[in-house]
Write a structure and sequence with these properties.
- The complex is a heterodimer of chains A (about 775) and B (about 525).
- Chain A is α+β, with helices and mostly antiparallel strands.
- Chain A has 20 helices and 33 strands.
- Chain A has a nine-stranded mixed β-sheet with strand order 19-20-23-24-25-26-27-28-29, with helices on one face. In chain A, strands 5-4-3-1-6-8-9-11 form an eight-stranded mixed β-sheet.
- In chain A, β19 (about 410-415) and β20 (about 420-425) form a beta hairpin.
- In chain A, α5 (about 220-230) crosses α6.
- The relative contact order of chain A is 0.07.
- With about 525 residues, chain B is of the alpha+beta class.
- In chain B, about 35% of the residues lie in helices and about 25% in strands.
- Chain B contains 17 helices and 22 strands.
- Chain B has helices at about 10-45, 75, 95-100, 105-110, 135-145, 185-190, 200-210, 230-235, 260-265, 265-270, 295-305, 310-320, 330-335, 370-380, 430-440, 460-475, 485-495; strands at about 60-65, 115-120, 130-135, 150-155, 160-165, 170-175, 180, 215-220, 235-245, 245-255, 275, 285-290, 345-350, 360-365, 395, 400-405, 415-420, 425, 445-450, 450-455, 500-510, 515-520.
- Chain B has a 20-stranded antiparallel β-sheet, with helices on both faces.
- In chain B, a hairpin with a 2-residue loop joins β6 and β7.
- The longest helix of chain B is centred in the first third of the chain and has 34 residues, at about 10-45.
- The chains are: A alpha+beta (about 775), B alpha+beta (about 525).
- The interface of A and B includes residues 46, 127, 129, 302 and 303 of A.
Chain lengths: ~775, ~525
């Protein structure tokens, strides 16, 4: 019996093996009629094509290894949008399951638009013309049908070749590029090439302005022509773009106009031929991975989908082809390849612009740069990790990467009229704990400070197209992504720890990264421009007593924080796995530090000083800078050096104190450092003509109150901070109507006393909190 | 025994009968007298002794005469127009009003018989509105039974004998058969205590609410510049409207405030009613004829409303672009419209939803001298060699005698101009423009004289708005609606709009005042 079963099994296996590979390829022209708007450039203003330079194509490869059938259609289109994919799937021959249909766009910027219905995208793709959508989908489906009908016994091989002169990084001179050209060759049983597919990462944007309204496949068109000249018309040349987000064509032959387009296409074809000639084709097995996972949350949810298509194709379990539903930057493609090779694959091709279009995909390292690619990336800085994880789930080699959700919860305890939160772990975990603990508060902060401010139009410009929108148009869904783009440069200069903490906080609160980042940036935005008064309250008051005035060998710092909103107060103790532990007095939604001390006794607090100019948005907000300084600096000198180097900062004074002394770093037109005078250092010099009048009155009162104190005690400092001079109102008072917390730091003992405002508006009682040095 | 012949034989019975008869007659008479007395008292007490005008203060800001609406209740309540009333105003529907009143219809019919008058001074909250109406005798007697009705309290008010309906918050008083009702006790007392010379006379009443036809409601409102926005524009407004089963007609006449007369002086000076031409086809059509050239109307509008885009200065600037300026749409417009007029028409054909930006497709037709227009076409400068075919520059197709200006997007945003009969036709959409230019012009005069005629077909208008709204809702960009909440709201709008066939307004300037007629016509029931 066993022998019989064994024979049956062997016979079955032989039968499977004997089936062999079938393949067919076809090309169908999908050139649109003149007058059709072209996709890719906003500045065409949706105008229609006026000429055809060269035709555009749908080029299809059909593969069947006996158990897996698939169509891979490479189209000379800018993107594969959902309307097109859906219609193609409706029209596709019923011989392949829909999830085995790969649609990729070469990303030529000179082929038909007119197929995208959502209004906002029509600015780039032009008016929606259902007839063009129908004709294009029909051409793609026809290419599938023709390829299927042309199927024959075939063999397949793949290879790669390195180039260093055909593509460049379009953002960073000498920046990263993908040197690999991937090649797939399919021969019939006589060894004649049926199809040659090239995978190369570079934007097909070589067509010049004079031909902006000419239809063209761009350099892939010349590539097809050259390959088919070299291999004969029986071979269908195919082109699939790679991780091309920030890649464009070089100009190795220094040609101009169409000659440059021809040059790239021809050179690419020559390289591909040299690789293809060396490929040994054989029987292969195919494996298709397909998933439609939920994407990370995005601020642009009204414009972008919440889920997408992630596709993989494995050939012989050796070649991994990953299909990105958008435009990945090259860094993502290179990292994915590194991981694939580490998992045991012999080669990996990244195909961009496949099956869907969720815009650009920028890696974490580029998310804070104001490059076009990162500005058009709306799924957060961890979208690269998201793709690595989703692809790993579909890969047959390696271990699927799982989402690591921190399990440690924040430890919370009550303070007099406030709360104390202990956060531990990696920066991401710390952020996650905060996000989880205060998800409601953070969501509320996002809605009230950002979304509702957009609804009220206080965060929407009253110029340009914004001003033209009729009143029934709700601009908030459009303004939110625009604000997110505007806040990206503020990530620049942010410490990696703070960045990771914001990421964790967003995940913990279940919000998009951009939403939480906008909340962090709101104080900076609010302090800029002609916004209502509620945004313009200063951060006050700061005073340090040093040397003899603070008792021997100590520094005493008093600080009131004024804040326009009635946000709940909290003391956060952060003990990260790396870097210094620190305490901050602030708000649940705020990662940055307005008032804080680290475990080395370094105290930092900030005050907005309006005459010194609007806060800059060319780098991280002041509170996030202070956070990084607290986490990394041990001494006053380190802190002063770190802060003094921030030449972009404007409109703030920062008081830095340590038991060795205190300094005020003034960020105005230039960065200045002020030292104590007669043992006292005030946040603003009351005699300075640069300060506004209310600040001079306020600080004059501080100076008067402390003038007769030879040694300033903590109790005396508390009394100063609670001072409500009845002769003054508003910002001229030390304890004003917007004062949210008062803190007295004792640097030497690393103790501080904190008091929060009572509900009736009076100053609360001070509670002492000790803080021990956790690490050297 | 007496010798006196006595006659017996039942004489007593008649006597008894007579006695009985006398008694009955007595009671009968008494009853009759009582009934007569009651009737007389009833008639006396319900006599129409107090004219309505006695309770209407003179010089009130508004005075509205409401005809015998309850007498024509069926006609008014059954009008199909009510089906198109916006949801917010649903309480105004007659059927709803009667359903909500705490009395049967026949009582109401007796409480409000003839014409009623609504008057007051507060035109923002109408807090001091006083209604003066006349009851029937039955209504009057029913009112006397108010003591039996719970919820009506007496208010002596220093002998004025007011009645207070606490639940709807109304006060009323009866004088003769005149019923005076108000939400404001003060306003009611003021009406009841008017000195004779402070109340309206019958002649004044007739003047203020002059009859102009078989109207259901007519009235007049006097504004001061301090009153809300309307008061800044209008000095007074008189109106009359009638509700028919298939239509509503409103006639009105308005006097402008002095300031506004000055503002519109350039535009309306010497304007008299003119012959108007029927609008071009479209969901909204406007026909204008002020008897003066289009350029004067254009710059007059700019002057009146301080619109820089329509100013004389802008006109001149467009007409003569500097060497560095590209002659664009403005240049084309002023070149072609310089000699146009006096009549012109504008219409909206709808919205091309597939265009880059869905904007209304607007067409204008302006009376011109064809020869002058063709000469203006010929005079358009050809695009310089540096201009690309898709650049925004007026291009004259000499063969077709049409001018095109490529703008952005596709044909629906490509202004097109051509000669259509004796009219210059300018369309924001090439598709619509070419369609109309191909058609044979059919310029019919309207049966009314005036200066402005507006025709709106609500269903295609609402359908276009819904289509655009849906596009915006898909992107969450429609204020106040989500994609889910929009659909039922849109269905309701379409349902209401489909009741109305068209809304027509004709207006003209006469004797320094603006008068007009508005008609809302329902679709016939199929």
């Amino acid at each position: 019996m066993k022998r019989f079963l064994g024979v049956c099994f062997a016979w079955t296996m032989l039968a499977v093996r004997a089936y062999g590979l079938e393949a067919g390829a076809a090309r169908v022209e999908i050139t649109p009629p003149l007058g059709t708007p072209l996709n890719g450039y906003y500045d065409r203003l949706g105008r229609g094509a006026v000429s055809v330079h060269d035709p555009v194509w749908a080029r299809c490869l059909y593969l069947d290894d006996g158990s897996t059938r698939l169509f891979w259609v490479c189209t000379d289109l800018c993107v594969i949008n959902r309307e097109l994919r859906d219609r193609v799937l409706e029209m596709a021959p019923d011989v392949v399951p829909p999830e085995h249909i790969f649609l990729s766009a070469t990303h030529t910027h000179s082929a038909q638009g007119a197929m995208i219905r959502p209004l906002l995208f029509r600015t780039v793709s032009g008016r929606f013309v259902p007839e063009v959508l129908e004709a294009t989908a029909s051409g793609i489906a026809e290419a599938m049908g023709t390829a299927y009908d042309a199927r024959k016994r075939a063999a397949l091989g793949y290879g790669t070749i390195i180039q260093n002169d055909l593509s460049v990084n379009r953002r960073v001179p000498n920046g990263p590029t993908d040197p690999q050209i991937g090649v797939i060759r399919v021969d019939d049983s006589d060894g004649n090439p049926i199809a040659v597919l090239a995978n190369f990462a570079a934007h097909p944007t070589t067509v010049g302005d004079d031909d902006a309204l000419a239809v063209s496949a761009d350099y892939p068109g010349y590539f097809y022509k050259e390959i088919e000249r070299l291999y004969g018309a029986g071979c269908v040349a195919m082109f699939a773009n790679g991780a091309q987000g920030n890649q464009t064509c070089a100009n190795p032959e220094n040609k101009q106009g169409w000659a440059r387009t021809e040059s790239i296409g021809r050179l690419l074809a020559e390289r591909v031929k040299s690789a293809a000639d060396g490929i040994q084709c054989a029987e292969v097995t195919l494996h298709v991975g397909y998933a439609t996972p939920e994407l990370p949350p995005t601020l642009a949810k009204a414009l972008l989908p919440s889920s997408t298509i992630v596709h993989t194709l494995e050939i012989n379990n050796d070649l991994l082809v990953t299909f990105f539903p958008g435009e990945p930057c090259v860094e993502i493609g290179l990292e994915l390849r590194r991981r694939a090779l580490a998992a045991g694959y012999k080669a990996q091709f990244s195909i961009g612009l496949a099956n869907d279009h969720i815009l650009y995909l920028a890696p974490c390292s580029l998310y804070g740069k104001l490059y076009y690619e990162s500005a058009m990336s709306f799924y957060g800085p961890r979208i690269d990790e998201w793709f690595y994880r989703e692809f790993s789930k579909l890969m047959t080699r390696g271990k699927p990467a799982a989402l690591e959700t921190p399990t440690v919860a924040a430890k919370e305890s009550a303070l007099a009229s406030g709360r104390h939160l202990l956060l531990t772990g990696t920066p991401y975990e710390i952020g996650y704990q905060r996000g989880k603990a205060f998800s409601e508060t953070i969501r509320h902060a996002y809605v009230s400070k950002i979304v509702e401010a957009c609804d009220r139009k206080t965060l929407i410009p009253d110029t340009g197209l914004w001003a033209w929108a009729p009143p029934f148009v709700n601009q908030t869904p459009l303004a939110l992504p625009r604000l997110a783009i505007g806040a990206r440069p503020l990530i620049e200069g942010l410490s990696r720890e703070a960045h990771a903490e914001v990421e964790g906080m967003a995940d913990g609160a279940g919000l998009p990264f951009d939403a939480v980042w906008l909340v962090q940036c709101e104080p900076t935005f609010a302090a800029r421009g002609n916004l209502p008064d509620r945004y313009r309250s200063p951060f006050c008051t700061m005073v340090a007593a040093v040397g003899d005035r603070a008792g021997a060998d100590d520094v005493l710092v008093g600080r009131n924080l004024d804040w326009p909103d009635d946000d709940p107060p909290i003391v956060t103790e952060t003990r990260p796995d790396k870097g210094r532990a620190f305490l901050q007095v602030g708000f649940p939604w705020n990662v940055g530090v307005f008032t804080g001390m680290n475990d080395a006794g370094l105290v930092l607090c900030a005050e907005r000083v309006e005459p010194h100019g609007e806060p800059s948005i060319d780098g991280a907000p002041v509170e996030l800078v202070l956070r990084g300084v607290l986490q990394s600096c041990r001494t006053l000198e380190d802190a002063v050096a770190a802060l003094s180097s921030l030449t972009y900062m404007r409109g703030y004074h920062v008081l830095a104190a340590h038991r060795s002394g205190a300094r005020v770093i003034e960020f105005g037109e230039t960065v200045g450092v002020r030292e104590p005078a007669a043992g006292l250092l005030l946040g603003v010099d009351p005699d300075s003509i640069a300060a506004d009048e209310t600040a001079r009155i306020r600080y004059g009162r501080v100076r008067d109150l402390l003038r007769d104190e030879r040694i300033v005690s903590a109790e005396e400092m508390e009394k100063v901070l609670r001072d409500c001079d009845p002769a003054q109102t508003g910002r001229a008072r030390i304890f004003g109507e917007h004062t949210r917390h008062s803190v007295v730091f004792e640097a030497k003992s690393r103790m501080f006393r904190v008091a929060f405002r009572n509900e009736d508006g009076s100053a609360g009682n001070f509670a002492a909190i000790g803080f021990t040095e956790s690490k050297p | 025994m007496s010798e006196v012949a006595r006659t017996y034989g039942g004489a007593g019975r008649p006597l008894r009968r007579r006695r009985r008869f006398t008694s009955r007659r007595h009671w009968g008479r008494a009853l009759l007298a009582a009934v007569l007395a009651i009737v007389l008292v009833g008639l006396w007490s319900t006599r129409d002794s107090q004219p309505q005008v006695r309770f209407i203060p003179a010089n009130q800001k508004y005075l509205i005469a409401v005809g015998d609406v309850f007498g024509h209740w069926d006609r008014i309540a059954e009008s199909r127009v009510w089906a198109a009333v916006p949801l917010e105003a649903v309480l105004l529907r007659p059927a709803d009003i009667t359903g909500r009143l705490p009395m049967p219809q026949w009582v109401l019919n007796n409480l409000v018989t003839r014409e009623s008058y609504l008057t007051g001074n507060d035109i923002s909250t109408f807090e001091d509105l006083v209604c003066v109406t006349t009851m029937s005798r039955i209504g009057c007697l029913l009112e006397r039974l108010q003591g039996l009705v719970p919820g009506i309290d007496g208010d002596p008010a220093g002998g004025l004998r007011l009645r207070i309906l606490s639940k709807p918050g109304l006060c009323y008083a009866v004088r003769g058969r005149t019923l005076i009702v108000s939400r404001s006790r003060d306003a009611l007392i003021r009406s009841l205590t008017l000195p004779k010379d402070a109340s309206l006379t019958s002649e004044e009443l007739a003047n203020r609410v002059a009859r102009s036809g078989l109207e259901d409601v007519r009235g007049s409102v006097v504004f001061t510049p301090k009153d809300a926005s309307v008061g800044r524009i209008l000095q007074g407004l008189s109106f009359a409207f009638r509700i028919e089963p298939e239509s509503v007609q409103l006639k009105w006449r308005a006097a402008l405030q002095t300031e506004w007369r000055k503002t519109l002086d350039q535009l309306l000076q010497d304007v008299t009613p003119q012959q108007l031409t029927a609008p071009l086809p479209g969901c909204i059509g406007v026909s204008v004829n002020l008897g003066k050239p289009v350029r004067q109307v254009w710059t007059g509008m700019g002057e009146a409303f301080q619109w820089g885009l329509l100013s004389e200065e802008q006109w001149r600037k467009w007409a003569r672009p500097t060497a560095s300026e590209t002659p664009g749409l403005g240049f084309l417009l002023v070149s072609l419209l310089n000699e146009a007029g006096p009549g012109f028409r504008l219409s909206c054909h709808g919205v091309d939803l597939n265009e880059m930006c869905p904007l209304p497709e607007v067409v204008g037709a302006f009376e011109v001298n064809p020869d002058t227009l063709l000469a203006a076409f010929e005079a358009l400068p050809p695009p310089p060699a540096s201009v690309k075919p898709w650049d925004s520059y007026p291009r004259y197709d000499r063969e077709a005698k049409r001018v095109y200006v490529p703008m952005i997007g596709g044909p629906s945003l490509e202004p097109t101009a051509g000669l259509r009969g004796r009219h210059l036709l300018i369309s924001t959409s090439r598709t619509v423009g070419e369609t109309l230019l191909r058609e044979e012009p059919n310029e019919q005069s309207l049966p009314w004289r005036g200066n402005l005629y507006i025709q709106i077909r609500p269903l295609p208008c609402v359908q276009s708005m819904v289509d655009v709204g849906r596009l915006l809702a898909e992107m969450e960009c429609l204020r106040g609606y989500t994609q889910e909440s929009f659909e039922p709201a849109a269905a309701e709008w379409i349902k209401k709009a489909s009741v109305i066939d068209e809304i027509r307004l004709v207006a003209g300037v006469a004797e320094g005042e603006v008068e007009g007629e508005l008609a809302v016509v329902c679709k016939p029931v199929s």
